[in-house]
Every structure is written in C-alpha cells, then in structure tokens.
Amino acid sequence: MAQRVDIDSHKIIEVYSPATLEKIGEVAVNTPSEVGAAAARARQAFRVWSSLDIKQRSEIMLTARDSFVSRREELIELICAENGKPRLEALVEITYVCDIITFYAKQARRFLSPQRVTPHLLRNKKVTVHYQPRGVIGMITPWNFPIAIPSWKTLPALVAGNAIVFKPATDTPTLGQRYVELLVEAGLPSGVVNIVHGGGGKVGEALVRHPDVRVISLTGSRETGVAVLKAAADGLKHVHLELGGKNAIIVLDDADLDLAVEGIVWSAFGTSGQRCTAASRIIVQRGVYDELQSKLVSAAEGLRLGVGWEEDTDVGPVINQSALEKIDSYTQIGKDEGAKLLTGGEVASNDGLEKGFYYRPTIFGDVEPGMRIAQEEIFGPTTALIPVDSFDEAIKAGNGVKYGLSSSIFTRDVNKAFRAMRDLDTGITYINAGTIGAEVHLPFGGTKDTGNGHREAGQAALDVFTEWKSIYVDYSGRLQKAQIDTAE
User: Fold this and answer.
1) Strand 193-195 versus strand 406-410 pairing type
2) Count: domains in the chain
3) Model-level pTM?
4) 6 has a pLDDT exceeding 80
C-alpha cells in the first residue's frame, strides 16, 4: 500500500506492501506547478511525436513490448509486493499488457488509415475521413490493475500520436513509475509520456483543469468521475470515464453447477474482489439454490489466503487499511439488513495474516435485491446470493442496480441465453462464464452509472483519443454547386 505521510510537509508517498506492511519504496509528490510543467513538456513533445509516421511509432511500441517481456519476473514481483496480487494474476496482467502493445502496434495502420466513407454528391470530388490526434491526454488510473489499465489507455493514445501526462494511484506509484521508465527505455522521445504523483485533490485537479490537457481518461469511482466531469466542464474537455460495477451472475435451474461455481469463485474472489467486473451478486433460481449455496461455500472455504509471491496462494490482501475497514463494515450492514452470513465475514488474523490486510472470502445468503449489500459496490471479496423464482425475475434483479458493466448467465437453454444477451443492460455479457476478463480487440465499458458512454480497448478506444477530420478534394478545376434532385 502507499500511505501519504503528512504530504504537505514531507512531500513524499511512502509505499508499503499490503501483504506484509513492509516499506518497499517512496516517491515524491508533485505540486500543481509541476503538473503544469509536465503538461507543457507534453505539449512540446506532441509536435515531434505526432509528426512521426505510424510505422515509426509502432516500432517503438514493439520495442517496449520486448522490454516488458524481458522484465516480466521483475514486474511480477513488484505487482505481488506493491499491489498484493497472487503471482498467477500478476503474470496474467503482464501477459495482457504485452498483448495490448502488440495489438495496437500491429493494427495501427489499419485503424488510422484514411477512410473513404461515401461518394461525393458531385463528380470529380473525393471525400475521406482522417483520424487526428487530440494533443495532450491526462490519464488517471487506479491501483487494482496498476500496469494493465495504464497500458489500456496509453497505447491507443500513443499510437495515434498523442502525448500524455499520467497520474497513477497513490497506492501503487512505483509500478506506475516503472511502467513509464520501460516506455522511455524503448525509445519514446522525451516528454511524450510524463508521470506525476499525488492525490486527486491537488495533483489530480491540477491535471484535469490544465488548459494544455485536452482529454481526461479516468478509471475510478462514480464519485470521482462526477468530480472530474465538473472540473473539466469549464475547459470543454473531452472526458472518458470508466467507473464502478455491481455485477451479477445468473444461475438458472438447468445450469452446470460445477461450472457455475468455478466461474463464481474466480469472479467474486479473484483479485480479492477488487475488480470493477467482480461478481458481487449471484442471482440463483430456487430449484438449484440450496445445492449451489453448499458447493459455493465449500469452494470459498477451500481458498488459501496469503502473500502473492507464494505459488499456492489463491487470494491476496486487499489494498489498504481503509479498504479493509470498508469491506468489514459491509459485513455488519448485511447482518443488520437480515441477510444470512454463510462464510467469511471477518478480518483474517491467524497464520501470520495479521501482518497484512487480509479479509476472508465472504458469502451472504437469502439476500433481497434491494439490500445495500446487493446495491452498493463493496470492492472486496464479498458476494451475495439472491434467490429468484423465474428467468424474468432474474433479469429484473440483474438490471436492478445503477451500474451496468458486466453480467453473466449459466444455462443450457439457448433461447434464454439469447434473451439474456438482449435484455441484460450491461456493456458486457458472458454466457456460461464468469463476469471478469477482457479481450484487447473488443470494446470494454458499461451502461448507466458505469461510465459516460465511451469504451476502452479495440478500435473503439481511438474515438477517445482522436478527432475525426473530413477532407474534401475537388479536382474538377472549377467551382461546383450542389445539384438538388427535386424528383419525387
């Protein structure tokens, strides 16, 4: 974890591991004026970077991929130490980063080449549409995917020709620092990617409000997203928000329960439940409710908590003391609401786990859809079993939250599967799989309060970081006036 220790006087962020509370480093906190200087450097570097052709930019990106591959073990160890993830999850994150780099570097020409979209109304004219980089992009990222989410944002922005000012989370600043260092080592020109450290109140707001920053891309909470929108409004900035989730897995009577349990465990307790796509609601048809509950509790109780660098660890720590207290407070909220605590519900304090921020995988049963534990994002290893009578009731419960990121259904009925694809109001829907995971070539994002309509990954990400520019070429040699067809 990164703890801000009297920032105003010490001007540092001291970084501690959430697994052991051992100090692993520190970084300097930037002032608002230093944020401005970083934006100015990015503005100057943008002119050089955007003037390079796509091939040159792509080659630098592929060199960066090779750097990440060669530093894989170093990065895995740092993720385990600073973020707390188990080793397997850290490996998956680094592998995904390399996939992101490869995808954008190799697809850049196809995505960014001029597109002829329609014949012109008159002869001897040609119209094309071009992607133009927007300029300086401000990026604010969370701690739960401290390298993957920055790469998700920076790679499409860079390959399109933009420059960046990047503020990583205060809980994982050294991972953000290392990420930028590897990009620079790969040959990125000076000033193209700039990193600033500090909290959202001073450093984040300075970044959002700076006039040289034309786009803000944030992954964070709904509350932070609203604050960013307000701060960016005066500058009419383009804002991309990826916010919260309260994702549901629906399990129907005809489901393969062993497969469903496997998907639920990985979705609810992977990354200690600290994913925006985590399955924090399990909506179960009553015909299989008791059996699923029994299987799921048994599976959760078999998970091993521990430090991420040990091979047999299933669930690591949560990120910091504040998160631990919030998660535990929701256990009490669930009890007070009348939900049945089936397992977990406590801070882990034996076998040396008291040295870190560990919370036991928690399952509530007999949860009503309107309860707070079924409505509010807990962001921890807690999930709620919600019994329903029918498919239609399951869909209604699934849609009955303010978020709309990910959803899932386990069923052997192809008709119900296709109805779920249509009727679940989320940006992502899985059939017979959990709610987590992403493919770099597919758009990622959600509906309702999960964001403001934009998507990350795939070609859709370029809409955030580029402008459309329509080009008209008249090679007739004379002024032509549009001909209007008045025939009915």
Assistant:
1) unpaired
2) 2
3) 0.93
4) no
